[in-house]
Design a protein that fits this description.
Strand order of the largest sheet of chain A: 2-1-6-5-4-3
CATH topology of chain A: Nuclear Transport Factor 2, Chain: A
Number of domains of chain A: 1
Shape of chain A: globular
Helix content of chain B: 25-40%
Structural class of chain A: alpha+beta
Distance between the termini of chain B: 32 Å
Largest sheet of chain A: 6 strands, mixed
Structural class of chain B: alpha+beta
Strand order of the largest sheet of chain B: 2-1-6-5-4-3
Mean pLDDT of chain B: 94
Shape of chain B: globular
Oligomer: heterodimer
CATH architecture of chain A: Roll
CATH architecture of the domain at 192-330 in chain B: Roll
Strand content of chain A: over 45%
Strand content of chain B: 35-45%
Largest sheet of chain B: 6 strands, mixed
Mean pLDDT of chain A: 92
CATH topology of the domain at 192-330 in chain B: Nuclear Transport Factor 2, Chain: A
Order of helices and strands of chain A: HHEEHEEEEE
CATH class of the domain at 192-330 in chain B: Alpha Beta
Low-confidence stretches of chain B: none
Radius of gyration of chain A: 17 Å
Largest interface: A-B, 97 and 96 residues
Distance between the termini of chain A: 37 Å
Order of helices and strands of chain B: HHEEHEEEEHHHEEHEEEEHH
Number of helices of chain B: 9
Chain lengths: 172, 359
């Protein structure tokens, strides 16, 4: 099933694929920066989420998932391998996440890696693509004592909103 | 409407179709779906993974025919860079692999990285692979440490193979409910602007993939080509003009025995001839230290500023934001098990096989 099935104009197919990619990218940003308004803005009002433990409306899902992210010291969601099935104003897709979690267990730092996939349904309403349904599955995770070295002189330290460099005005 | 813009649009549409094939290949392996995986290849296509070199159809049947009950695998592609030339194309993509299996010391979780070097053709309107080569770049092997009880993992849906996989079932049911629908073209008045923005986004994505190739292959000419003359880099150890950054990089890179910049989630905000971007990046390297070889992963984001001058998008500013890092004695394995079956290995420019593909 090719992407853009049924699309008569390559421009619509191209813009749609980029728009869906952007929704996914902003979803990752919203989780990592704990940005609830951004996260909420990516879902249609009647959207639903299916994460196993969270089978609910997006309205309820968004603050709860950010509670989980916020309890971790740091998160970094990297999304790739995007596959989309686009049909007019509706689309569905699957893409892979690989997340790095830094957190504490009994006072000990842990570095976690999570491999999983999102299955998403999207709709375009009023010209804007958003999630209609979002599903997450975990395929694996790895959790080992932290070996992080923060004296490494690599760049500015990342943070949540609004402290992160992203919001400095240099990159907006 | 300019003919050049329409040609750029068709080039981008081709790239998107090829990205879809590359993504489907990973899904086909991980779900043990022979139709999906072999559907990425034209009849007569071949693959070269080193120990297995031969018909793609045979390779697909072998991979997807492995026992379904084995632990899940991941084959995730990122850094996709495609060059289209008429009815033919070449593509490089970075693979992040995961597998869970018994080793001498017990159950291991293996992360591995390499690159897919693809030759593709369009036949009867469909882009598919005609030859794929896989080169292995790195691997990390740690004792099994899966956790399904901590709050961030507890109760999550788990992936599966074939119809036991929740997203696969969801996508199949969704496709059955939604027959093909033709989308309306955007208004003609906005067409030129829309194409320009779409093509610009792709150009920024390609700058990011080019940076990774330049750094990972130690390709100095490519690295220098990505910046406007006044570009600034804030990399922590180095801050200043891009030429100084290229010199700094040439000075430190020989400490790395192997180096891979794995990117994801690239997002660009374009405003005329200026743009900003945020991209997830994991720098994965084997580094020589007094104490011995270390596996190091440096994770963070590139925050970028871009400008289009004389019709060409380049970087004018790049900051690296550090989010996480891992440093442990190396666990790389090169000559046994799955790694022994992947003897084609990445190298620096000009010896890496990507340069023959791109020529």
């Amino acid at each position: 099933m090719p992407s853009g099935q049924g699309a008569s104009d390559p421009l619509d197919a191209v813009l749609t694929r980029q728009a869906l990619h952007d929704v996914n990218a902003l979803y990752g940003r919203a989780l990592d920066r704990c940005d609830l308004p951004l996260l909420t803005s990516l879902f249609h009002p009647d959207a639903t989420a299916s994460f196993g433990i969270l089978e609910t409306t997006a309205t309820e899902f968004c603050p709860r998932v950010l509670d989980v992210m916020g309890a971790l010291r740091r998160t970094a969601h990297s999304l790739a391998n995007e596959w989309f099935d686009i049909r007019g104003d509706r689309a569905a897709g699957e893409y892979y996440l690989c997340s790095a979690f830094s957190y504490e267990t009994d006072g000990t730092g842990v570095e976690g890696f999570v491999g999983g996939r999102y299955g998403a349904q999207f709709e375009r309403r009023g010209g804007v693509w958003k999630y209609a349904h979002l599903m997450l599955v975990m395929d694996w995770n790895m959790n080992n004592p932290s070996t992080a070295q923060w004296h490494l002189r690599f760049g500015v330290r990342g943070d949540r909103k609004p402290a992160d460099l992203l919001y400095s005005g240099l990159f907006q | 409407m300019s003919a050049a813009l329409e040609a750029a649009l068709l080039d981008l549409a081709d790239k998107h179709e090829i990205e879809q094939v590359i993504a489907a290949h990973g899904r086909g392996i991980d779900r043990s779906d022979n139709a999906l995986m072999s559907g990425c290849y034209h009849p007569g296509a071949t693959v070269d993974y080193g120990v297995f070199a031969g018909p793609a159809a045979e390779f697909c049947a072998m991979v997807t025919g492995a026992p379904l009950k084995r632990p899940l695998t991941t084959h995730r592609t990122s850094n996709v860079w495609i060059k289209v030339n008429g009815e033919k194309a070449v593509a490089e993509s970075y693979g992040l692999g995961y597998r869970d299996e018994e080793d001498v010391g017990g159950r291991m979780q293996r992360l591995m990285g390499g690159r897919y070097l693809d030759r593709l053709e369009r036949r009867e309107g469909a882009w598919k692979i005609v030859h794929r080569t896989f080169v292995l770049d790195w691997n990390i092997n740690l004792p099994w440490s899966m956790d399904t009880t901590s709050p961030q993992y507890a109760g999550l849906l788990l992936g599966g193979r074939r119809d036991e996989d929740p997203p696969t079932r969801m996508l199949t049911e969704w496709a059955a409910r939604h027959a093909g629908v033709t989308a309306a073209a955007p208004p003609a008045a906005e067409r030129a602007t829309a194409i320009d923005r779409a093509v610009s986004k792709q150009a920024l994505h390609e700058l990011n993939t080019a940076y990774c190739r330049a750094a990972d292959r130690a390709d100095d000419a490519l690295l220098r080509s990505l910046w406007h003359p006044d570009a600034k880099v804030y990399y922590g150890e180095y801050s200043g003009g891009f030429e100084g950054f290229c010199e700094y990089w040439a000075g430190v890179r020989d400490h790395f025995e192997r180096l891979t910049h794995l990117i994801g989630t690239d997002y660009y905000d374009i405003n005329g001839d200026r743009a900003v971007g945020e991209t997830q990046v994991a720098r994965i390297e084997v580094v020589n230290r007094k104490a011995g070889k270390m596996d190091r992963m440096i994770g963070g984001r590139f925050l970028d500023r871009f400008e289009r001058r004389g019709g060409v998008w380049k970087l004018t500013g790049r900051a690296f934001v550090l989010d996480w890092n891992v440093n442990r004695p190396t666990t790389a394995q090169w000559d046994k098990g799955v790694f022994a079956s992947l003897p084609l290995r990445g190298a620096r420019a000009p010896d890496d096989p990507v340069y023959a593909l791109w020529a």
